[in-house]
Amino acid sequence: MALICLVLLPVGQTYAVWYEAKGQAVIQKGNKQKARRDATEEALKQALLFAGASVNSVQQLTNGLLKSESITISSTGEVEQLELVDEVWHADYVTVTVRADIFARGKTCSASDYPKQFATSYFMVENRQHLLDGKLDNFEQAFTRELARQMAVQTSTLSLPFIAPYTTQWAAPTAAENARELARQGNTQFVIIGRLGDLSVHREPSSALAFWKQEDASRYFSMDITVFDGLNGGELFHRTYTTQSDWPFDRFSDLDSLSASFWHTDYGNAIKKEMGSFIADIKEVTACQPLTGRVLSTSNGNLTVSLGRDNEVMPNDELYIYRTMEVIDSRGQRYLQYNVYPGVFTVEQAYGSTSSVRHKDTGFAINVQENDFVIKK
């Protein structure tokens, strides 16, 4: 939970904008330090989102604020000053108030507002024995669907429209080729491949003097994610995310991981928090990647390309077309060579996921072939 208060303070001829936010977190198992950190992180995240800044450094800022206990800390330029205003402890939760002087970073490239579409498959569970506790048989399917939902909720520029109904495990030599194939299947520019690692449950046996009490348990979570450029197969991003949470269910519970109630448990909320971190990370990584698609067909100088209104491509937009080829030098090193077709191509008609394109000057597309690349800068 977070509340936002916007404060404008005049400074000379300009105005500094301060954002004040409150965050709350439940105290679990008496762990006040974690609750305080979670409440502070939530407050700062909400302030950043409200100001239009990025959220990829929230944890770093939170840890710095709590560690130093100073009134003001410096950061990377988005947060000029950060203050811990107060914290109020209640019986089972804490409320933290922060105040931040935030300068939302301006657009660093023309592609920052273009929608970015991803394809993926069900994340592979490395050890399915971990799923026996709670009978989470469909967890890989449920997880991937929830990731798509969170992406739609948390950002307007990223989406996960295509989920292949199978799991994948790619070896390094074939990763680029597989990424390109999955991108073709989903007609997307980017590909996400993930593995779910430790999903085990750790149980503390109850005391012999209180054998009737349910044993305390916590459940772990880790995901290892790689993001590819689906057009050339290049790796853009790789990171591992881990967390853990209370697990109040006994080992014989039969849970439905596809249900909304599962994702509102403490464990589900902990996973969604890691999803949020991943979404913020890939939004930053792909922000300046130009909008790119493929030539689908050529006919009498008229081209059909795999970019349309869903990608915010409109009539009269200007596009560029290029071809790639692999070049091997005298040492056997392989390089990717880009050959750009001369001139600019304009959009004549834009449809949902495709557009009709012609050369701006000549009206003809000489030598352009299917599967060549088209780009909007």
TrEMBL record:
InterPro entries named in the record: FlgT_C (IPR032388), FlgT_C_sf (IPR038165), FlgT_M (IPR032386), FlgT_N (IPR032370), FlgT_N_sf (IPR038180)
Annotated coiled-coil segments of the chain: none
Domain Flagellar assembly protein T N-terminal: 18-103
Superkingdom: Bacteria
Domain annotation Flagellar assembly protein T middle: ranges: 108-256
Limits of the Flagellar assembly protein T C-terminal domain: 302-376
Protein name, entry field: Flagellar biosynthesis protein FlgT
Species of origin: Alteromonas profundi
